[in-house]
Design goal:
The structure holds two protein chains of two kinds. Chain A contains one helix and 22 strands. By secondary structure, chain A is mainly beta. Classes of the chains: A mainly beta, B alpha+beta.
Amino acid sequence: MKRLLPLAGLLLTGALPSLVQAELYYEKSGNLSLEGRYFTDSDADQQQTGAQLSVSLQPKLLWEWNGGDDAVTLELFKRFLDSDDERNHFDLRDFSWVHVADSFESRIGFRRVFWGVTEFQHLVDVINQTDAVEAPDGEDKLGQPMVNVSLVRDWGIVDVFVLPYFRERTFAGEEGRFRPALVVDADHPQYESDDEQKHIDYALRWSHYIGDFDIGLHVFKGTNRDPLLNAELQGSELVLVPYYAQMTQFGLDLQATIDSWLWKFETIHRNTQPENYWAAQGGLEYTFYGVMDSNADIGVLTEYGWDQRGEGSGVLAQNDVFAGARLTFNDVDDSALLIGGGYDLDYGSTSLVVEGSKRVGESFKVSIDGNLFLADESDDAVLYSIREDDYVQLTLEYFY
Amino acid sequence: MMTKILTPISLVTALVSSLALPLAAHAFELDAALTPEQQGLAISQASKDSDKGWQDMQGEMNMVLRNKQGQESVRAVRMSSLEVQGDGDKSLSVFDEPRDVKGTAFLSFSHALEADEQWLYLPALKRVKRIASRNKSGPFMGSEFAYEDLSSFEVEKYTYKYVGTEACGELQCYVVENFPVDKNSGYTRRIAWIDTEELRAQKVDFYDRKNSLLKTLTYEGYKEYEGKHWRPDLMKMVNHQSGKSTDLAWSGYRFKTGLSDEDFNQNTLKRAGR
């Protein structure tokens, strides 16, 4: 798996001057995934698929030189064979050059960045666009072009971001599930800024830990990753058109790690169209270790999500409670089971999720995921639109 | 007059003894005046002191996990550690195998008695998570090694009792009982066999919370690095209750590579997991 590659691979890096004496380290890894989904309700839009079977590839190549002070990573993603053609997409998850200098670290190229501490919603995590066709949980992200300079100081880590190009959110197509009743026309988005996708966004983050506390503060100025969806008549068909407004966001994330307790809190203030608002997500997690004299741990967590815009705002968590349990067996196969749910205190709608996974042999992993959505009120737009998208998913992954 | 004559001689003596000192660094004498508790502490303190000054260390860990039926599973971890005087060590570990957890990285600032500070980097989500460090007794990556078996040895973590001296293979060993101070330890006690020559741990028996023999760890293939730092090539842990075992083989030990505090933070954690 590890070997030295002739200098040829370096043409990719565009950093030849610093390579004169460099010994190049090369590594490849990645995974191949087979995914099957079965939807228990078929009476949604007749065009929507009842089952999905697809294959995805995620190869990753790494080159390192100067003893690891310089590195280029290339990570691709491609899905094939899905009945929803929008899911058969390609993405450059990572194609970047990381350089470590004496007093800073620079990261240039397509990358993914995660900010935040909570589990059921990620309010402060705003650098990357959501790859929404991949899964309804929004955990998958598209690679974001960036120049990121990071400084480590005694008083914390400072990250400066310049984001020169905007990535549009992916949406399920006509045949796809997890979409509103109307199809989203992702090919003709509208922008508040005349620069459209070429608008340059900026972000600044400070993060630090002080004893039991981990804290992060950020400001982001640029294109809002969350689009508004406006209904428009295209010919005789009514479709939804994404509208990307500008925004300035300030945010805080905080975690206290005390004994077996994790206390988590995130809050943002977002200045954007059509209105400015505050939102927050907070909660706690407690882990029971070695339950019933076994090796297994059970973590229980609960969170509350609030959004100032309240009812009718079309957001997932405006006044919602979440709870979950994570069972980690700590066995040879890393078996784990997660059960979680959300309850909307305004609308009474409920969502449930079950995720189980274990390794099979040395190189395979099998996962089973299930989601249940119960929503009766159309005002609870996010959940209501996917109320008939209950599904079970089986995934087999091969890692190399 | 006397002093003038004696000066050159004492200087020679000083030179000789300073030359001889490294050879005698591990010399340790039992003191009959001490209680078994004091004696146990003295042996453990001397063992810790004899290894002081390693500064930083890098190496690779290869684990082979075996169940009762002999089925094997492999773990590969790269590790860097930094010696912190007067406190626990700092360490950064990256998992290479199994492949599905490749790039998962773990940063730990350990402390003798306070809770350790620990962060986990999850490469698929690019997420750094601060994790609770109370979990001492849980298994490390499904192996027979618990987290507490792999954390840095600090004298303050135990109270001691010297039991006796007996043969251990070709060597003679001090036998010392260790009682964990931390309530969250998975053990009531450990019995350590420490050789009289270089004060290296040769064998450790672990007793579970019900005080029955749970595991035995044996050390093999000790090699000396940088003139005084003895490290084993192989650590074998056998679980007597489950019939499972884990062989932990070390390779590529490098000392004093120039690591510093700057190599142990969230940015280096993310880089390690790329």
